[in-house]
Amino acid sequence: MRYAQLVVGPAGSGKSTYCSALVQHAIDAKRTIEVVNLDPAAEYFDYEPRADIRELIHVQDTMEDEELHFGPNGGLIFCIEYLLENSDWLRDKLGEEEDDYILFDCPGQIELYTHLTAMKKLVKLLQDWNFNICSVFLVDVQFMTDGAKFLSGTMATLSVMVNLELPHVNLLSKMDLLSKGARKRLDRFLEPDAHAILGDIELNGMNAFNEKHKKLSEAIGELIENYSLVRFLPLNLKNQESISDILTTIDNVIQYGEDQDVRTRDFEEEPNEDE
């Protein structure tokens, strides 16, 4: 069995920084985590990728091609579709080693995860290649500190969960940048409460739009609360305990280490022929 995190989220949410932090944390913990860069528009990251989609195709190629002549967004989508058409390249880069643990650092093109099928097809390929996968959705916490934004972010998260059909962990990134006041406001939303969300929206002013859609916002908030559809975990990359807690949670989701435990127990239980 092999293990993977599909690291997704909007542009600027800290996906590559998260991948770099996990690689370093793994080194300190004497385990191996590698990264595959799937962002064809990436300009810089700290980690040394096991595979880099830019070796296959770069978003700039699609924008400069006389026939394609895509814009940045269309170019990103084309690159992922091109990767799927040339999946043997990715398979060769990944090899077939057992117990691999790989982070797939994905583009910040949100529609790739909310309603297009390309990433879902990639997930199916990885599962066929014996990967246990968890999607890790990062959201910049600074965009989630009032009720209206939190509700919007929650709906985007839910859309990704439904589209990818994977075990899913939601992270609020850049927690270290929050002021104490903003952190206090956020605490009310970490365990979603419809009344807290609506109360915050009303506190920030009921404009004509919010007034008109108050019942809809209330229904969405109650749906999220009553069915425990979405939960967010705070992530502070400057705090090693926070990184460790997140990694442990995801390891449990993808059952990392369980096969090793079984093999160890089987070895210990083998009868000694000399007895």
Structural summary, described in words:
- The chain is of the alpha/beta class and 275 residues long.
- It has helices at 15-28, 59-64, 72-85, 87-94, 111-114, 118-128, 147-164, 180-187, 194-203, 208-212, 214-226, 240-253, 258-269, and strands at residues 2-8, 34-37, 51-52, 101-105, 131-140, 168-173, 232-234.
- A 7-stranded parallel beta sheet has the order 3-2-4-1-5-6-7, with helices on both faces.
- The longest helix has 18 residues, at 147-164.
- The two termini are 34 Å apart.
Helix content estimate: 40-55%
Low-confidence stretches: none
Report the total helices. Answer: 13
Strand order of the largest sheet: 3-2-4-1-5-6-7
Mean pLDDT metric: 86
**Main sheet characteristics:** 7 strands, parallel
**DSSP strand content:** 5-15%
Number of distinct beta strands: 7
First-last Cα distance: 34 Å
Global outline: globular
Order of helices and strands: EHEEHHHEHHEHEHHHHEHH
Short description:
This protein is of the alpha/beta class. Helix content is 50%, strand content 13%.
